[in-house]
Amino acid sequence: MKDVDERLHRTAVFVGKLLLAGLMFRAVILVAPSTYQLQSAFADMITWMINIAGIEAIGTGTHIFTDKSVYVIVQDCLGWKSMAAFLGLMWASTKRTLEYANFILAGLGALFVANIFRVFTTVYLAEAGIISFEIIHGVLWRWSLTVIVLGLWIYWLKMRKDENRFDSRIREHLSDLNQRE
Fold first, then answer.
1. 71: phi then psi, degrees, rounded to nearest 5
2. Each residue of 52-105: pLDDT tens digit?
3. Gyration radius from the chain CA atoms
């Protein structure tokens, strides 16, 4: 019974922290900070990548102009919501968040790179006529970062579980050694 109470307590703490992270997330959305400069820099980078890939594009502010279309880099194109969700899951899952700072930073870096790939491929595939923009944007890539966030989190949980097993075995081994002395 004590084990069940412990798991219920850990689950309640996790859900509480995740709800608190969600409130902070909503506060950012309500405050609506200007990200125009970031969006513009991101549009410049995507424009540069599209040009290197052989499709002529011109970037102006948050807009990318091609022969076929005009793409607008909006705040959601920055991938910040996925990064916030990842941080929220990591924070809610442990008492010692800073202990996992290296994994968190690596995960944020992976999400940043995945987001660049997501936006680039959306524009490139639509311009190349391989898949329509609506299908790429609405179906394929809308959920891609969510899958990556959950994948990173599940990988970390498994890694942490394996780490805890290893720590337990070390403690048992040290205890055995101490008893022999």
1. -110, 140
2. 999 999 999 999 999 989 999 999 899 999 999 999 999 998 888 888 899 999
3. 22
Written as six digits, the tokens of 11 are 């689950």
- List, as one string, the DSSP characters of 51-113: HHTT--EEEETTEEEESS-EEE--GGGG-HHHHHHHHHHHHHT-S-GGGGHHHHHHHHHHHHH
Are 156 and 90 a contacting pair, CB within 8 Å?
yes
pTM, entire model: 0.81
- The DSSP code for 131 is S
Distance CA 8, CA 1 (A): 11
99: its two tokens? 């202990």
With b for 16 or more beta-carbon neighbours within 10 A and e for fewer, the 108-120 pattern comes to: beebeebbeebbe
